[in-house]
Specification:
heterodimer; A: 405 residues; alpha+beta; 2 domains; B: 253 residues; alpha/beta; Rossmann fold; four-stranded antiparallel β-sheet; 37% helix; 26% strand
Chain lengths: 405, 253
Amino acid sequence: MMIFAILKIALRALRRNALRTILTMLGIIIGVGAVIAMVSIGNGAKAQVEAQIASLGRNVILVLSGNVSRGGFSFGFGSAGTLTQGDYDAIRREIGGVAGASPEVRSSAQLAAGNQNINTQVMGVGVDYVEIRSWPVVNGDNFTEQDVRTANKVALIGSTTSQTLFGDIDPVGQIVRVRNVPFTIVGLLASQGMNMMGSDQDDILLVPYTSAMKRLSGGTSFRSLNVQAENAKRISEVQEQISNLLRQRHRIVEGRDDDFLVRTQQEISEMATSTSVIMTWLLGVIASVSLLVGGIGIMNIMLVSVTERTREIGIRMAVGARGDDIMMQFLIEAVLLSIVGGLIGIAIGVGSSRLVSMQMGWVTLVSPESIIGAFLFSAVIGVFFGFYPARKAAQLDPIEALRYE
Amino acid sequence: MAAIVHLEKFSRTYVTGEVEVHAVREVDLEIQPGEFVAIMGASGSGKSTLMNTIGCLDRPTSGTYRLDGVNVGDLGRDELADLRNEKLGFVFQGFNLLSRTSALENVELPMLYSRPRLPGQEHYERAMQALKLVGLEGRADHAPNQLSGGQQQRVAIARALVNNPRLLLADEPTGNLDTRTSIEIMGVFQTLNAQGITVVMVTHELDIARYTKRTVVMRDGKIVTDQPVTDRLMAEAELQRIDREHQAIRLQP
């Protein structure tokens, strides 16, 4: 039988029960739509995380000081203060393949300038920090080694903080009071946007770490060290060297846990994206379940259809239709249901992912793979769930079928 | 000339649960080209089983059935389907047209399953020709529910004829029709038979059987009489007679 004739018969049969057809398709529509929308949300999240990790800089190795646990409560890495000026100097002095390094101390402080004041994060860093983070100074200049040595009261200001304190006035040369200590702003940092936790990276003040430790927080240890390897090939080598050096310096014997943590950007990136990859899969699988339910709906309605049209099947067989012809007819009908449903589902999935990104401001990424995948999957569902009813129709006995009331 | 239908010691047994039902027992029957045969009998006489077998919808339990020289007992489901498509035309009591499908498309139906496939244009031409043969060329685009019972049966006859079958099978073709329409339908069969088409029909009405040329009467799965029709009725003459009677009734005060 010609494919055109089969399609015509199938379309007529589907049109005859328009409401039923639409309701049956709805299962597939929702399934495909959900798969596409969910995967696009997951992919969007992953792309965003990747972009943020890239903003950490290139070839970066992060050394975090060990964690403190008191009474079974862990304060997390960076809390123990095991990294010292000595460690930092040793890394700079003894390890090859390092392009730059910078300590990092963090504290939160009240800033005031003129009649404005704001509570923001003050980070003490080295000269190399903005270079490591690929975070250019757009106005003014970075502070110098001299500033670090003398614990000079100079600062680089983030764009958000600058906007809050100075509005549209050029912040370079202005004075900002940090816990009542006046700092001169020497440079304005380029805007970085939000980090992966969703906080504003531009709401910040960078000061020499020596200034931060002596004049603000009073601590003697670093939260972390940012080290930049010369190139991507040397990252693991540098990581290994830092580990060995610190174990030696901290007198950690074989078999004991390190009181620090060395992570490459690669590892951080993998950890961060692995969660979003898992999330994407999870969302996709949950959505696929609804696609499966849609398939069962198709099977159900096709079984009803075969029963309803037993007499028609009998007539077709009497005038010479083979089992295969009947089977093909019902299979095409099921596949048509699922494919048309799939196409509508794709439109709805793409539309709803647009809506999500517009309404909620999430990044969504509709990948062509998910569209093609969802479409093929819906076609496969049509064949799979249409097969049993179609075979049932094909195996009817013509005499019985003709006699069916 | 070779027989179209050749049954030899044909038996058909159904097994329902533990009981064996012998629907037809060792029947011999031969039908030559150009014949017009009525198979008669009460319900349960085995006439439907005989008809289903002749129509290649069923196969003999034992004995042989040759349709136009082909041994049907050896064939599989697909081959039986092809045989029905190529050599047989069916007309049923309940018309069995596809609803909400035009007369033309109903007539085209058997050609959908023809092997080798026919070009679409030929579908249309042959279907229109068949409709013309039964006098319904003007109703080609009417759906069955827009046609009278007699017209529906004519569409069914056109469908049965469209593949130029060797044998036209009719199962109680007048069972759902009034007397006048029944005679009209028998007239169609008589015209077709006169053009050389072999017709076999099942009926339990003696009046209807008198329009055929030969009656086969079955009882308890066996043929009890098989004889030519001696007092044959011709549909055209009968219709004229009925018209005259009606006129006479109307003339009476």
